[in-house]
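DM between two lab members

TW: hey, do you still have the Medium/long-chain acyl-CoA thioesterase YigI entry open?
JB: yeah, one sec
JB: this one, 127 aa:
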Amino acid sequence: MRTLGAVLDHVAPGQVAISLRPGPAISQQHGFVHAGAVSAIADSAAGYAALSLMPPGRGVLTTEFKINLLAPARGERILARGRVVKAGRTLTLAQTEVFAASGGQERLVALLTATLMAIEDREGITD
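TW: and the structure you got?
JB:
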């Protein structure tokens, strides 16, 4: 997240918002935010949303995700809003909507659905 310049904006049980400011380091050849950067903040928002509902001492890992890129990601900020759809003891389903924000307007640019796994009692894996 630090490499991308992403910031954790909001955390509530089952909900997380992450944002980043577009720039040359995360842009593709046409000047849009690269799909990899959009995917990274979307996955992180889903993961942190899932982690927010897990007991202390657990870690979280994404086991799979699907992302639909709906429009070019360009604007003053890119916002990823993750939320838990269904929390389980081991697996959690989460969804993230990614918006491009400019001039007070937001436009949906991507939708991610992820399955996340709770990790417990594994050396080096705690969040």
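TW: got it. The chain has a mean pLDDT of 94. The chain is about 15% helix and 50% strand.
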